[in-house]
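Structure in, sequence out. Go:
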């Protein structure tokens, strides 16, 4: 055996070893969906929704299944604050997470007090309370997210009541569909521009 071959053997395979059970779980979650690179974030959401976090074994399995490098999958998973990456040896997060927005608007509206009240009023084994970056809900400050549900003008008592009642699923607001929007005149201006009825001078 050459010196180079011996060094390669001693180093072993690069990266984390693949866990067959984790790979089977990831394949079960993804189902028949195409393993497209642009679906990586969606797949990370699916795994976290199922297991409550992103374990090292599942990240390794997802990289294998999508034919991506482990580094790429890990970098995407750790870039977004709402993904909970659990490294080997770390404990999984509590079953329920309450995130309190700590943007300037929310801090001015009492987010720090809200965070303190929640942290002091929950069982950390059942509910985890963490700070989160801007949720884009400044008009409803202080904003929070309990489970998958975003809450405007959040209060500690209101959030704790929601936790007890299990009101933690996303709420989809009423919205107008595309056909109804177009029937009500939506995109007419765009159609006039594209059809040449309106020129640049008229728009500006």
């Amino acid at each position: 055996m050459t010196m180079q071959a011996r060094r390669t053997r001693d180093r072993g395979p690069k990266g984390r070893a693949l866990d067959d059970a984790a790979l089977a779980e990831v394949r079960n979650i993804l189902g028949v969906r195409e393993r497209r690179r642009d679906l990586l974030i969606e797949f990370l959401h699916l795994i976290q929704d199922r297991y409550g976090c992103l374990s090292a074994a599942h990240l390794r399995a997802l990289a294998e299944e999508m034919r991506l490098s482990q580094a790429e999958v890990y970098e995407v998973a750790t870039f977004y604050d709402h993904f909970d990456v659990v490294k080997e040896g770390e404990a999984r997060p509590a079953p329920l997470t309450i995130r309190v927005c700590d943007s300037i608007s929310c801090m001015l509206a009492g987010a720090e007090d809200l965070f303190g009240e929640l942290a002091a009023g929950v069982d950390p084994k059942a509910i985890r309370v963490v700070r989160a970056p801007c949720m884009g809900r400044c008009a409803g400050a202080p904003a929070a997210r309990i489970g998958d549900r975003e809450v405007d003008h959040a209060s500690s008592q209101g959030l704790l009541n929601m936790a007890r009642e299990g009101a933690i699923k996303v709420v989809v607001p009423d919205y107008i569909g595309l056909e109804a929007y177009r029937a009500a005149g939506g995109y007419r201006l765009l159609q006039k521009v594209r059809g040449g009825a309106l020129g640049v001078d008229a728009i500006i």
